[in-house]
Amino acid sequence: MLYLNVLNALQNCQRVLANTKQYFKVQTEKIIMTGRERIIKLLNGESPDRIIYSPNIWQWFYHHKNHNTLPEQLKHCTDLLEAHLALGEDCFSRNLASDQREQWYGGFTDFKYDPTINLTLERNGPYKKMLYNTPAGTLEEEFLYEQKSSTLIQTKYILDGDLKNQLISFKHLISSTHFEFDAKRWNLYEARLGDAGMNICGCWCNPLKLFHFAANPANTTFILHDYPSVAQEIMEIHTDRCIESIKQAIAGGVKCIMTMDNLDSNFFPPPYFEKYCAPFFKKISQLCHQYNVKVFSHACGQIKELLPYCMKSGLDGLEGVTPPPLGDIELYDALSSTEYKFICIGGISAHVQQQVKSKQECFEFTRNLFSELISKKAFVLGMSCNTTIDTSFDVIRWFGEATKEYSGLIS
User: Which residues contact 368 (CB under 8 A, 6 or more apart)?
Assistant: First the structure.
């Protein structure tokens, strides 16, 4: 009997020891999991140890840096990457190398033009004029950097006059433009970022967005109706140029790309998306998926109608899932409607950023949001499009603290 008691006691000790080892193994894994490891799990369709929180603070950071109003924790930061590292959250950004005064996105590709294009750049204080001299004529566009709000505004569009002739010149311009991926710059940022997260290469746009940039959305509709053949030719050339550059990015080690499209069903209604955007997305996603590279698009506004079309066209996810009243779908509805197979980044709209005023309100919003979710897969908590310049730094931090606090609500 004594022997059996001793044996049972030893077996109990072994079980306790095994459970203790497993407990500390799990805790250690949680402690040592890096931001990059979490994002890799997410991109592989797996659940990270906790929800990823990656605030999009690009405009917010540079606005406060430009106006000397950065919080103490970030005052030493010289650029956005340093700010992300100082903030200490998982960095999953497509703006790390973007020059806020020059462009809305990009930074890892450079525009190169064939000898047939002569580019002239004129500056006058905050104003910038671009003159593209082509064999068929000269095209112009103008920009204003609005210092007060730290916003780049387009004040003159390339296509705004004699469209029939301008489209011929525009076709020459697009045919002669190449996006060259800068592998050296990419590697520099990768080294600086380390394991804190993953860099997104966001340097392209779909063909319909190309015309939005060149003509504005309203005039784009008239161009597609009045000059369908030349518009289609330009779109196909643009797609080829993007593919050339994306191949370079893949060869350079990029694992996640994002097209900067501002998808919104008001400007990309499903029939337009299917006709003008889906062929582009299918081509680039087929290319990227051969090399296990994920493809996202930046959205901004109402996307409920577009979600099935995005999935069907090969996209792996959207950045900018915006809840009402600014958007038209709640985050949990977007995730459930895509069966947690489509990555949704967002959830914190500009409206919410202004609405919450205390740590308690941030925590309550996060707890309520997470309680509606059934999986940590396919979700990154972040600003639905951008962090407004008047958002409190405390709010940015509190959402990070709340993410860690309530990730356990989700299996």
Answer: none
pLDDT at 9: 52
Instruction: Report the predicted TM-score, pTM, of the whole model to 2 decimal places.
Output: 0.90
Half-sphere exposure of 320 (CA within 13 A, CB side): 22
Cβ–Cβ < 8 Å for 103, 116: no
Supply the DSSP symbol for 292: T
Level-2 CATH architecture, domain 38-114+162-409: Alpha-Beta Barrel (3.20)
Tokens 């210092």 correspond to: 147
Torsion of Cα atoms, 119 then 107 then 190 then 73, to 10°: 140
Tell me the C-alpha distance between 411 and 409, whole Å.
7
What does the alpha-carbon distance between residue 249 and residue 368 come to, in Å, rounded to a whole number?
39
Q: Mean pLDDT of all residues in the chain? A: 93
Using 50, 70 and 90 to split pLDDT, how confident is the model at 5?
low
| Residue labelled with tokens 């650029």 | 79
Express each pLDDT in 259-311 by its tens digit: 999 999 999 999 999 999 999 999 999 999 999 999 999 998 999 999 999 99
pLDDT at position 39 is: 98
Cis bond before residue 325 (omega within 30° of 0):
yes
- Residue 81 phi/psi, 5-degree rounding, is -60, -45
d(CA 391, CA 356): 10
Distance CA 177, CA 383 (A): 33
Contact 113, 176 (CB under 8 A): yes
Which residue ranges make up each domain of the chain? 38-114+162-409
Six token digits for residue 317: 């996810």
- As a whole number of angstroms, the distance between CA 350 and CA 182 comes to 33
167's enclosing H/E stretch is: helix 163-175
Burial 43-57 (b: 16+ CB within 10 A, else e): beeebbbbbbbbbbb
Tokens of 163: 């469209």
| CB-based contact 382:55 (threshold 8 Å) | yes
Task: Say whether 353 sits in a helix, a strand or coil.
Answer: helix
**Position 278: which residue type?**
A
Q: pLDDT tens for residues 92-107? A: 999 999 999 999 999 9
Considering only CA atoms, which of 201, 281, 184, 298 is closest in space to residue 235? 281
Q: Are 300 and 349 in contact (CB under 8 A)?
A: no
First to last CA, the chain: 45
What would the pLDDT profile of 132-152 be if each residue is shown by its tens digit? 999 999 999 999 999 999 999
